[in-house]
Amino acid sequence: MGREFIYLFDEWAKSYEASVTGQHKEYRDVFEGYESILDKVANASTGTVIEFGTGTGNLTLKLEAAGRTVIGIEPHETMLEITRERCPNVQLINGDLQNFEIEIKHIDSIVSTYVFHHLTDDEKLEALITYSKLLQPGGKIIFADTAFATEEHMQAMITKERARGFHEVADDLEREYYTTIPKLQIMFQQASFDVKFEQLNDYVWYMEASKK
């Protein structure tokens, strides 16, 4: 359900902003174009939005600025507190991609950035089926996350990072549940979504899925 990696954020909560702004050289490529990625996700959303994995509230702030009604869901209490301080008017809930409780019945969009890879592929499909039940036809899932065109491409990127001594990012790629675009396409289709993908940097893909 994605909480097995929550311990990683005990320390990262303190340095997350440095990572996303390019100050951590190993993650510079992962977060290349970070602000534009957040803007793209926020601008594609509409109405009442569930945001999974608010982190330190960077996307949350952009959603607020775009006039969205945001329900933020975050499993890490320190991250949740940071978002609460930055976005005091947003409803925030301690929960994760699969375990959450909301009172609002009408949801227009479900968004996240750099989060969906915390689920196994089986869990990803289960989550998408759940989200499908929350959305009316035409409702959207808008994600941006690290993914790969093929398994071979993922292995090539791990090899590349090891070769340049970036073992922290390579360990991350081997530890968490990164998947491929063909697999994601099948998952979205099985959950009754039409989906399109766009690669935004060497790691991150934009995914916009409309409920059938």
Can you offer a commentary on this structure?
With 212 residues, this protein is α/β, with parallel strands linked by helices. The protein has one domain: Vaccinia Virus protein VP39 (Rossmann fold). 41% of the residues lie in helices and 23% in strands. It has eight helices and seven strands. Strands 3-2-1-4-5-7-6 form a seven-stranded mixed sheet, with helices on both faces. Helix 2 crosses helix 3. It is globular. The model has no long low-confidence stretch (mean pLDDT 94). It holds the Pfam family Methyltransf_25.
Would you summarize the structure shown here?
With 212 residues, the chain is an alpha/beta fold. The protein contains 8 helices and 7 strands, in the order H-H-E-H-E-H-E-E-H-E-H-H-H-E-E.
**Poorly predicted runs:** none
Describe the global form: globular
Please give the count of helices: 8
Write down the domain tally.
Answer: 1
Proportion of beta-strand residues: 15-25%
InterPro entries: Methyltransf_25, rRNA_Ade_methylase_Trfase_N, SAM-dependent_MTases_sf, Uncharacterised_MeTfrase_YrrT
GO molecular function: rRNA (adenine-N6,N6-)-dimethyltransferase activity
Function: Could be a S-adenosyl-L-methionine-dependent methyltransferase.
Family: Belongs to the methyltransferase superfamily. YrrT family.
